[in-house]
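Handout, section B. The chain below has 291 residues.
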Amino acid sequence: MKTLKFVFAYARSYIKPLIITVIAMVALVGVQLLAPWIIRELIALVRESGWDPASRATITRLAMGVLIVYALRIGLRFLNNYMAHVAGWGVVADARREIYAHLQKLSLNFYENQQTGQLMSRMINDSEMFERLIAHAIPDMLVNVFMLIGVMVVMMRMNVTLTLLTMIPVPLIVIAMQGFGKYVRPAFRERQRDLAELNASVNDNISGMREIKAFTREQIEAGRISKRIDRYRDSMLYALRLMAMFGPLVEFASSLGTVVVIYFGGRLAFQQVLHIEDLVAFFLYLDLFYQ
């Protein structure tokens, strides 16, 4: 929470692009919900009507509707992505300026016990994480929430029972995400610390290359840097290995929703409780739901 408060304090200066981002996100979710519904209407038309002038006119309108939806999606995604990055990199620039100003105020005693490369890594590499938070993490979370609400409303309108059944895998996804937060995030934080130490060691050695050569410490320092490189590589691979484990688990839990729709939705369709166009729409909306 402290990190979020810190970032939002800087984000106030970029309220306009953030508002545009939120509006574009809401509109994008609405546009994405239209495409499966148009396909549902097409299937219903094929099931209920014959090949007559009215049907041909309706098909033309549906095709034009899908074309407009996809065109709007391009523009809305541009606004969403670009404005989020405008705010994100603006926050990073402001944070870096303030960090540098703070470094100038610190006493000389502070710098005697600090490595230059590590301070540079904190200022440049770590501050870049703010951009990922503002331009990626928070917008993605909001889009997922809006999409969840929108898909739930549409699916409930088609069939309440099947909608509730498709929620069965949700607890498994929640458990997987909790595991992600418990294991994967700390692993990436450790990777970031190892990166800072590697940058600090390389910077110090390059700055003191004359002394290293004067005292013939090339082999010793090469070995020390090699250990730092290996440590960073290992921490990165460990974090990526955890990511590679949790990703498929979440995908598997999500795919259970499709299994539920096939089993229960197929039964409801054969019992004439669920129309075929609604069954197809359920698959399309479920893909958006677990995206």
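Note. The radius of gyration is 27 Å. Compare this with the example in section A.
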